[in-house]
Write a structure and sequence with these properties.
By secondary structure, the chain is mainly α. It contains 9 helices and no strands. It folds into 2 domains: 37 residues; 139 residues, no CATH class.
Length: 196
């Protein structure tokens, strides 16, 4: 069957079949097939309030932020739990503690960057990520993590020392770099690819 005869069959696809075929094309990295499926699709026209794209982009960014923070908290507490089970033998306790404190550092940097991003955009962080059923337990977990790990400056010093000890070149993440990443992700979600 030729490409032209295959393309004629596209008109008969339901929306669900076209979605499945499009996802399969993306999975194969077949951009031409994906584009043909899109170009041959019937069009739907709809309207929405002019700010809805911004709200969707901010909601997506907030969801991504929360997922990353939950992952970092989970990994921090997993490392700390393993440390608590230590038998006292040389089983990598220092390495686990370094990992835990590195994750705590990233959590804190990302949290401060999130607050910075929200403030720059005139948004209260709690309006985007607050109000969830598990929020209070997350805040308790975060508070306990901060109690254990000390100030952000102390954490940064420890991370810098750890990087040196393990021979890893580079600097630890900063609030400024993470805030820049958030701004970039937000612009990308809006379809704006201009450099900052």
């Amino acid at each position: 069957m030729t490409q032209q005869s295959l393309t004629k069959l596209y008109d008969a696809l339901t929306a669900e079949e076209r979605a499945v075929a499009s996802i399969a094309a993306m999975g194969r990295d077949d951009r031409a097939e994906f584009q043909r499926l899109c170009d041959s699709a019937p069009r739907e026209h709809w309207s929405s309030p002019h700010h809805s794209g911004i709200v969707r982009a901010l909601s997506l960014l907030a969801l991504d932020y929360q997922i990353q923070q939950l992952e970092l908290l989970t990994l921090f507490w997993t490392n700390m739990t393993y440390l608590g089970r230590s038998t006292g033998e040389d089983c990598g306790d220092e390495f686990l503690q370094d990992l835990a404190f590195g994750r705590a550092y990233m959590y804190r940097v990302k949290a401060d960057a999130w607050e910075c991003f929200c403030s720059e955009n005139g948004i209260r962080s709690a309006d985007l990520v607050g109000g969830t059923a598990h929020e209070s337990s997350l805040r308790e977990s975060e508070g306990e993590m901060k109690r254990i790990t000390g100030s952000l400056e102390e954490l940064r010093g420890r991370v810098e020392q750890t990087l040196k000890e393990y021979g890893i070149e580079g600097e630890p993440a900063t609030v400024e770099k993470e805030a820049k990443n958030l701004r970039s992700f937000f612009r990308e979600a809006l379809g704006d690819t201009a450099d900052e």
